[in-house]
Amino acid sequence: MSETPTPPVRFEAGSELPELTITPDRYATVRYAGASGDFNPIHIDEDFAKQVGLPGRILHGLWTMAQVARAQTEAARAAGLEGPSALLRLKVEFRGMGVPEQEVLVSSTVDAVEDGVATVKATAKQGSTRIVRNGVAELRVG
Q1: 7, 48, 57, 106: which could form a disulfide with 20 (CB 3.0–4.6 Å)?
Q2: What is the pLDDT of residue 4?
Q3: Could you tell me if residue 31 is inside a domain?
Q4: What pLDDT sits at residue 75?
Q5: d(CA 39, CA 32)
Q6: Could you state, in chain order, the average pLDDT of each consecutive group of 10 residues for the chain (142 residues)?
Q7: Number of independent structural domains in the chain
Q8: Residue 116: which domain range?
Q9: CB neighbours (10 Å) of residue 127?
Q10: How far is CA 97 from the centre of its chain?
Q11: Distance CA 91, CA 78 (A)
Q12: Cross-strand bridge partners of residue 123
């Protein structure tokens, strides 16, 4: 049985970077609250979240932003770059709420490369809900 080879990652204008899919388990918000110090009950208390009109506990926005960063640094590493140290800047707009136990998909496309810096546009979605839009990452690629 042969495997389909993974295409090489290239930081060239118009290139799509590998997608990142991650399904946060039911305890992801509790672990992230402990790591970040953000114990807002909308993230850790199912009953409270529902009382204030949410579908249940919601993911921390910065957890989702971290997944956008992770997608960029994993692509950099796959391209033979330094991984996390290649990420120079990251900006996102939060536009929706994510929930635990549903897949999050991060998609990224190289917009431009100039003077050894790639500008990448990224989004994060959960089903049809766009959690992050207009994400922009800058990575040192040369």
Answers
A1: 106
A2: 53
A3: no
A4: 96
A5: 9
A6: 66 97 97 97 98 97 97 95 94 96 98 98 96 96 91
A7: 1
A8: 20-25+60-140
A9: 12
A10: 13
A11: 22
A12: 107
- 54 is a domain residue: no
In the structure encoding, which two tokens stand for residue 28, read together? 């992801």
Within a domain: 95: yes
Residue whose structure tokens are 């990452």: 137
Rounded Cα distance between 64 and 40, Å, is 16
Neighbours of 35 (CB within 10 A): 12
* Count of beta carbons in the 10 Å neighbourhood of residue 137: 27
pLDDT at 5: 54
Q: What is the CATH number of the domain that holds 91?
A: 3.10.129.10
Are 14 and 109 in contact, with CB atoms under 8 Å apart? yes
> pLDDT value at position 6?
63
